[in-house]
What we know:
Blueprint: H1 4-14, H2 17-29, E1 33-37, E2 40-49, E3 52-60, H3 69-113, H4 118-133, E4 137-143, E5 149-156, H5 170-179
Antiparallel strand pairs: 1-2, 2-3, 4-5
Amino acid sequence: AENNHFLKFNLQKNLSARYQKYIEKCLEINKPITRKIEKINVLFIPLKIKSAEIGTLIIADDGEFPFQDYEIAIAKIIRLHLTSILMRITEFEDLNKDMALMTKLVTVLRKFFSIFTIDKLEQEIVSFLLDFTKGSRGFLIIKDASENYKFKVTQDASNNLMSDYKYINKTVLSDVQRLGEPIFIAENDINE
Length: 192
């Protein structure tokens, strides 16, 4: 289901509606289909295991003989292996993304644990979050002993500490406090 957008995009862009109905049919029945289309023998092979649809392999000859039973049998064997490989590639890509994120988090945690002052730790946390979210500005507000909110760290994307708080929207601050959830804001250029 996740790859359907890829399949539909390529069908609409490169293949006729005539091909599309055979692709959908072979995926529906989960069996190869042979058709003769404009003097060309075409074999539609569904790349599907259970409910996971990867796509369809289309093999066409040059107007020669129809596909033989043994060729279709080979296609059935190949489709299972090809479908499994394509599924594993997607899983491997996801795993690599997760591993890259975990590596980054471990690096950040090591850096955090090497910091011995709370002020430096707070700066590093804001810096990490800016880098992680690709934000342009970030700040940390902490309640002091008198229950008043105090700006502890204000930082831009270049890790420069900011002393001017005029760019911080007070409505957003109250919304974050009220909702207890992060709010991400994207600034748009009026001229765009």
